[in-house]
Design goal:
2 domains; Aldehyde Dehydrogenase, Chain A, domain 2; five-stranded parallel β-sheet; globular; 353 residues; 39% helix; Aldehyde Dehydrogenase, Chain A, domain 1; 15% strand; alpha/beta
């Protein structure tokens, strides 16, 4: 199977996903194998929520819409245009997936298969419903993929390289367990935003999407903001109001209530608008229902500080993209070439040939 065949298969998968890119699913007549997969995928979306309460329909649809938008012929070709696909020496690449947001490991699977390798998938127990049926659809449009895709539940064997995503604690285990094969090991990372006090209401509303989407559980979610000294939070709170309904989710509300109780008992100072706590803290990793903040006096000094801690950061969000920062509202809409941790997965895979 040549590269163009692989691209064509993923483009067809993107077409299939386009039917689920809004909460009112729309069956389209021209989609291949739709009679076999449309209703089944709708059912798996329902089961995903039942299996993992964080995977509500809105968040699953948002993830599917993102992948539908990316899996186009133009996007895939733009992504792959800088690489040389000269040979096809198959290797088996194991992927250990996270499960914090829907289909969070799909980019790794895509990268392995588009590079011409076999993939051995160890799914997270939190996200087991969506990926298998998508890969079944991929096999239906390009049957040779059936020989390229396999799953493992327990001990992995037969792999020649590994891509593993987990916490800082599990990464130490991964480093030891996979030390004898080429690997990409991902640890905890967080995302931050830098405000200057002159943001427009529209920019702050977009920032609220970066904060609240997926309940703030992704590494690309903004978990901390940096603000000027004497920053007035009134405008900030006014423009994140569109996410007020998040508190009606029981799982989110339980986390919010718990963290609020802990902070109150410890005497911590915080701002509270009844659906998120804003707490001054020098850390990056805020709990669910909490947004950390820290003040700064010099943007240059702050940039130096963040650069020194770049190994802990996934995204830096600002209204100034000159430094490679991400615009407000874009953290959860990565392009195919926006690699996790800045590590070029496809380059890693092609060097294995």
């Amino acid at each position: 199977m040549d590269l163009q065949q692989r691209i064509n298969a993923f483009v067809k998968l993107g077409d299939f996903l386009s039917q689920f890119s809004s909460e009112s699913f729309e069956k389209k007549d021209h989609i291949a194998h739709n009679d076999l997969f449309f209703d089944g995928f709708k059912h798996q979306i329902k089961l995903a929520k039942e299996h993992n309460g964080w995977f509500n329909k809105e968040n699953v649809v948002f993830a599917l819409n993102g992948w539908s938008n990316q899996l186009t012929n133009s996007n895939i070709n733009k992504w792959l245009s800088k690489y040389e696909f000269n040979t096809e020496s198959l290797k088996t690449i194991a992927i250990v997936m996270a499960g914090n947001i829907p289909l969070v490991g799909f980019h790794d699977v895509l990268s392995v298969l588009i590079s011409g390798h076999n993939v051995l998938i160890k799914q997270s127990t939190n996200d087991q419903r969506l990926l298998p049926i998508l890969l079944e659809y991929l096999i239906s449009v390009e049957p040779i993929f059936v020989e390229r895709i396999s799953y493992v539940e327990n001990r992995m064997t037969g792999h020649e390289a590994v891509i593993a995503t987990g916490s800082n604690n599990t990464s130490r285990y991964f480093d030891y367990y996979f030390k004898d094969v080429p690997n990409i090991i991902r640890k905890n990372r967080q995302s931050v935003a830098i405000l200057n006090g002159n943001e427009t209401p529209e920019q702050l509303q977009l920032l609220s999407d970066d904060i609240f989407r997926y309940y703030g559980m992704g590494c690309r979610n903004v978990s901390k903001i940096f603000v000027p000294e004497s920053y007035n939070f009134n405008n900030f709170f006014e423009n994140i109001y569109k996410w007020k309904e998040v508190i009606n989710d029981n799982k989110y509300a339980n986390n919010y209530d718990y963290n609020k109780a802990v902070y109150l008992m410890s005497g911590a100072k915080m701002l509270d608008n009844n659906y998120i706590l804003v707490k001054e803290d020098d850390g990056f990793n805020s709990p669910i229902g909490v947004l950390f903040y820290e003040t700064y006096t010099s943007l240059q000094t702050l940039e130096t500080k963040l650069n020194s801690e770049k190994e802990e950061l996934q995204c830096i969000v600002t209204n100034n993209s000159d430094n490679g920062h991400i615009p407000f509202g874009n953290t959860q809409q990565p392009k195919l070439w926006d690699y996790a941790d800045g590590v070029d997965t496809v380059n890693f895979l092609l060097k294995l040939h």
